[in-house]
């Protein structure tokens, strides 16, 4: 019996026909109560009550302003008219079109005025996404054509790769009986990839492509020695300056001496070619111009230095000759006009800022009006000159004697060779002269350096009787192919003409 009583209690609890006391009012009850109250309201008719008994067309409380329960709890949704949305869509479609920046700054105010007049608002304000300031430029190597709007976070893909520069030389050659003299120029690399080296009274040729070594010449007297070397632009002839005041001209292909020119009264320590004119600097301080085509080769004399001329370089365009001397002067001479009556020229510039002997001279290949000079032990400064204006652009203290300079065009860098006390090479970024790296290995002062014809390797000769080849400027393969293609195309056009 107790079991049946428990089941009856359960059924009574689960029954749904009992009134629900806490439930919300039913819909029909709400309608009835609203109709009753409206009918009893003074000043209202029955028709009004009937209309209110229907479901309202608008949501109640739509037009009422409601205060949010919390500050900042609702978001702001801007209201824009259809015209602004059309303009914004037009601006987004023009995002990837090229922009003419030549007159953009001058027309910004006028464009704003026209926009206010025609549209009634600034067109810049119609953009859906608007940032203050200009968007950032895409990093180098960025392939997407969309603009970078927000940030420029460097990623492994977009980061510019830096090349690897080996700290060890690519090759080491022996140079026995090398004359350890700061004022001499005993190394030069031809356009045919042949390296000429002067060892005491002999000149050797090393073919960098094949590795062959040839003895070109040797002076008759053991007391005499080679002072300077210089290749012609074509690389088939070599000029040799000697201690017995002569300048010899050699045909390298036939291993034959063409002529020996005498005009100086002291050793010839520097040489430089400009087409058929060979310029030579002597210990007497004089610079002679030789026209190698004629019998009377001595055509002009430059007398701007009071001591030995140890640096001599013609500019790439052949307009100026730069000379450096033991008197701490850097002089720039103009090219002598054809048919000139006077055999002397006046220097265009003569700078005396250096406090030591100036042997290191280098013209910039891609800026023919830029000259770099380096001072000796008492100076140690690299100075960059603008020949057109005559001003010193940059000056840098290297803390070491500078024996030679050369520009490396593959990466637009400047290479300096140093004697006491560093005895190394330094690569500088041009024109900032920020140090890229140092190349150490020589055990004595570096006397001279020269660049290979493809500008990828620099050769140095030092007092430790070694020649070291540093392959530090190899061009990127893609750029190298593009350069070779451009050279071949130009050669084809020249042959057609």
From TrEMBL:
<dbReference type="Pfam" id="PF24807">
    <property type="entry name" value="WD40_CDC20-Fz"/>
</dbReference>
<dbReference type="GO" id="GO:0051301">
    <property type="term" value="P:cell division"/>
</dbReference>
<dbReference type="GO" id="GO:1905786">
    <property type="term" value="P:positive regulation of anaphase-promoting complex-dependent catabolic process"/>
</dbReference>
<feature type="domain" description="CDC20/Fizzy WD40">
    <location>
        <begin position="173"/>
        <end position="470"/>
    </location>
</feature>
<dbReference type="GO" id="GO:0010997">
    <property type="term" value="F:anaphase-promoting complex binding"/>
</dbReference>
<dbReference type="InterPro" id="IPR056150">
    <property type="entry name" value="WD40_CDC20-Fz"/>
</dbReference>
<feature type="region of interest" description="Disordered">
    <location>
        <begin position="27"/>
        <end position="79"/>
    </location>
</feature>
<keyword id="KW-0132">Cell division</keyword>
<comment type="similarity">
    <text>Belongs to the WD repeat CDC20/Fizzy family.</text>
</comment>
<dbReference type="InterPro" id="IPR001680">
    <property type="entry name" value="WD40_rpt"/>
</dbReference>
<keyword id="KW-0853">WD repeat</keyword>
<dbReference type="GO" id="GO:0005680">
    <property type="term" value="C:anaphase-promoting complex"/>
</dbReference>
<feature type="repeat" description="WD">
    <location>
        <begin position="219"/>
        <end position="260"/>
    </location>
</feature>
<dbReference type="GO" id="GO:0031145">
    <property type="term" value="P:anaphase-promoting complex-dependent catabolic process"/>
</dbReference>
<protein>
    <submittedName>
        <fullName>Cell division cycle protein 20 homolog</fullName>
    </submittedName>
</protein>
<feature type="repeat" description="WD">
    <location>
        <begin position="376"/>
        <end position="395"/>
    </location>
</feature>
<dbReference type="InterPro" id="IPR019775">
    <property type="entry name" value="WD40_repeat_CS"/>
</dbReference>
<dbReference type="GO" id="GO:1990757">
    <property type="term" value="F:ubiquitin ligase activator activity"/>
</dbReference>
<dbReference type="InterPro" id="IPR036322">
    <property type="entry name" value="WD40_repeat_dom_sf"/>
</dbReference>
<keyword id="KW-0131">Cell cycle</keyword>
<feature type="repeat" description="WD">
    <location>
        <begin position="302"/>
        <end position="333"/>
    </location>
</feature>
<feature type="compositionally biased region" description="Polar residues">
    <location>
        <begin position="31"/>
        <end position="60"/>
    </location>
</feature>
<dbReference type="InterPro" id="IPR033010">
    <property type="entry name" value="Cdc20/Fizzy"/>
</dbReference>
<dbReference type="InterPro" id="IPR015943">
    <property type="entry name" value="WD40/YVTN_repeat-like_dom_sf"/>
</dbReference>
<feature type="repeat" description="WD">
    <location>
        <begin position="439"/>
        <end position="471"/>
    </location>
</feature>
<keyword id="KW-0677">Repeat</keyword>
């Amino acid at each position: 019996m107790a079991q049946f009583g428990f089941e009856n209690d359960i059924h009574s609890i689960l029954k749904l026909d009992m009134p629900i006391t806490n439930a919300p009012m039913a819909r029909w009850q709400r309608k009835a109560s609203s109709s009753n109250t409206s009918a009893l309201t003074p000043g209202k008719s029955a028709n009004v009550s009937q209309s209110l008994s229907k479901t309202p067309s608008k949501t109640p409380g739509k037009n009422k302003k409601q205060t949010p329960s919390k500050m900042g709890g609702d978001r702001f949704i801007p209201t824009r008219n259809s015209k602004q949305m059309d303009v914004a869509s037009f601006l987004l479609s023009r995002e990837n079109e090229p922009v003419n920046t030549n007159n953009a700054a001058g027309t910004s105010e006028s464009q704003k005025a026209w926009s206010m007049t025609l549209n009634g608002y600034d067109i810049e304000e119609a953009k859906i996404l608007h940032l203050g300031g200009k968007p950032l430029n895409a990093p180098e190597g960025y392939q997407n054509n969309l603009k970078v709007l927000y940030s420029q976070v460097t990623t492994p893909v977009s980061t510019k790769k830096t090349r690897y520069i080996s700290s060890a030389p690519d090759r080491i050659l022996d140079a026995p009986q090398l004359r350890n003299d700061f004022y001499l120029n005993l190394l030069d690399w031809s356009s045919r990839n042949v390296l000429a080296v002067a060892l005491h009274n002999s000149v050797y040729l090393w073919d960098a492509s094949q590795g062959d070594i040839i003895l070109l010449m040797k002076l008759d007297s053991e007391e005499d020695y080679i002072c300077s070397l210089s290749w012609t632009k074509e690389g088939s002839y070599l000029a040799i300056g000697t201690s017995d005041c002569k300048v010899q001209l050699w045909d390298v292909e036939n291993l034959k001496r063409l002529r020996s020119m005498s005009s100086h009264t002291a050793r010839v320590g520097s040489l430089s070619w400009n087409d058929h004119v060979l310029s030579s600097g002597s210990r007497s301080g004089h610079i002679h111009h030789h026209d190698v085509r004629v019998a009377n080769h001595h055509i002009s004399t430059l007398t701007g230095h009071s001591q030995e001329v140890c640096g001599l370089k013609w500019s790439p365009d052949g307009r100026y000759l730069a000379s450096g001397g033991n008197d701490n002067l850097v002089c720039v001479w103009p090219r002598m006009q054809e048919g000139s009556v006077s055999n002397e020229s006046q220097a265009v510039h003569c700078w005396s800022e250096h406090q030591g002997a100036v042997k290191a001279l280098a013209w910039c290949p891609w800026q023919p009006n830029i000259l770099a000079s380096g001072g000796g032990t008492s100076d140690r400064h690299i100075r960059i000159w603008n020949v057109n204006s005559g001003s010193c652009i940059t000056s840098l203290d290297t803390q070491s004697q500078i024996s030679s300079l050369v520009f490396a065009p593959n990466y637009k860098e400047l290479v300096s060779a140093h004697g006491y006390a560093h005895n190394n090479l330094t690569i500088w970024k041009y024109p900032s002269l920020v140090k890229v790296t140092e190349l150490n290995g020589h055990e004595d002062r570096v006397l001279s350096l020269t660049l290979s014809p493809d500008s990828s390797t620099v050769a140095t000769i030092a007092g430790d009787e070694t020649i070291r080849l540093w392959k530090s400027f190899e061009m990127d393969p893609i750029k190298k192919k593009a350069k070779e293609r451009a050279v071949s195309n130009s050669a084809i056009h020249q042959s057609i003409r």
